[in-house]
Amino acid sequence: MSAKDCFYIVERHKSEFLFPLHSHDEYELNFIENGRGVRRVVGDSIEEIGDYELTLVAGKELEHAWEQGNCTAPDIREITIQFSPQLFTGDMLARNQFASIKNMLDKASMGLNFSMSAIMKVYSRLDTLASMTERFDQFLHFLKILYDLSLDTEARTLASTSFAHAPDQVGSRRIQKVKEYVSVHYAEDIRLEEMASLVGMAPSAFSRFFKQHTGRNWVDYLIDVRLGNAARMLVDTGTGISEICYACGFNNLSNFNRTFKARRGYTPRDFRTLFTKNRVLV
After folding, report:
1. What does the alpha-carbon distance between residue 31 and residue 228 come to, in Å, rounded to a whole number?
2. Residue 84 half-sphere exposure, CB side, CA atoms within 13 Å?
3. CA distance 39 to 55
4. The listed CATH number (2.40.50.140, 1.20.1250.20, 1.10.10.60, 1.10.10.10) that belongs to domain 171-276
5. What is the per-residue burial (b if ≥16 Cβ within 10 Å, else e) of 17-38?
6. For residues 150 and 166, what is the distance between their CA atoms, to the nearest angstrom?
7. Contact call for residues 274 and 265 (beta carbons, < 8 A)
8. Among 11, 8, 24, which residue's Cα sits nearest to residue 139?
9. Exposed, middle or buried by CB within 10 Å (0-12, 13-18, 19+), for 66?
10. Which CATH number fits domain 7-157: 3.40.50.2300, 2.30.30.90, 3.10.290.10, 2.60.120.280?
């Protein structure tokens, strides 16, 4: 991407995905059509996509790739848009008109997958963006795409915050206090009663409060934090799986293997192999 351009866009028609897992400083919006069965890897999230796929990745250390998986389509369409984090300079993102875009970019530090309704809303603009010759109009189209996507209430983050090294955005001070504690002490035996006491609540009230403010069960949240850190160790270190298990708060190796596979789709060993085999830095 030229330093003088606001963004870089390329459209491809392909029958297979060959580019390995990688990470880069630029933000990336990737659209895929007719790619059912392609395997999307964003951090520690590994999923098969459907007929339409649109994902924004904004974490410079967040590994991502779209791999062949079980896709057999002879003509897959892919549109990739990359833009610099410095595109919105100064305090532009602090302005009211850009509030939803800022919120979207913050979430995209973990990878953000958009709903089918959002894809259909921007489809026509994506369809013509690459072929536009007037660069200013092209940039306005691009901004409108970002804005429309930022209004998608069904968009979901992909990688765990602990794997992506991303800040955990929460509104409640009590929840923030709990999450900060867990981020430091996740390897220890953390009890529900201990967290409730930390924020001055009864255990039952804390459970309801945590679920209300995060949409997640307390135990599930703690397990996912531990798994995210375990996945990070599997990718970044050569530490043995048994040692990683205990270092991340699990006290039983078979339970760790079973839980990791149930929530990540792969055993810890296979997850490590997937990353180390195909990982490059761009």
Report:
1. 26
2. 10
3. 13
4. 1.10.10.60
5. beeebebeebbbbbbbbbbbeb
6. 19
7. no
8. 8
9. buried
10. 2.60.120.280
The rounded distance, in Å, linking the Cα atoms of 98 and 116 is 23
Question: What pTM did the predictor assign?
Answer: 0.85
Q: Which two tokens stand for residue 269?
A: 């060993």
Name the 3-class secondary structure at 155: coil
Q: Where are the alpha helices (DSSP H) in the chain?
A: 99-107, 116-129, 135-150, 161-164, 173-185, 192-198, 203-214, 218-236, 241-247, 253-264, 268-278
| pLDDT higher than 60, residue 280 | no
pLDDT tens digits for range 150-176: 999 999 999 998 888 777 666 688 999
| 280's tokens | 């490059």
Q: What whole-number distance in Å separates Cα of residue 59 and Cα of residue 109?
A: 4
CB 111 within 8 A of CB 57: yes
C-alpha 57/C-alpha 31 separation (Å) is 12
Residues 249-266 have a mean pLDDT of: 94
Residues 6+ apart with CB under 8 A from 41: 21, 63, 64, 65, 66, 67, 274
For the stretch 257-261, contacts whose Cβ atoms lie closer than 8 Å and that sit 24 or more positions apart, written own/partner, are 259/223, 259/227, 260/227, 260/230, 260/231
**How far is it, in rounded angstroms, from Cα 48 to Cα 248?**
27
Per-residue model confidence as pLDDT tens digits over 35-64: 999 999 999 999 999 999 999 999 888 999
Where is 79: in which H helix or E strand?
Answer: strand 76-83
Q: Tokens 């900060």 label which residue?
A: 180
Q: What is the residue type of 54?
A: L
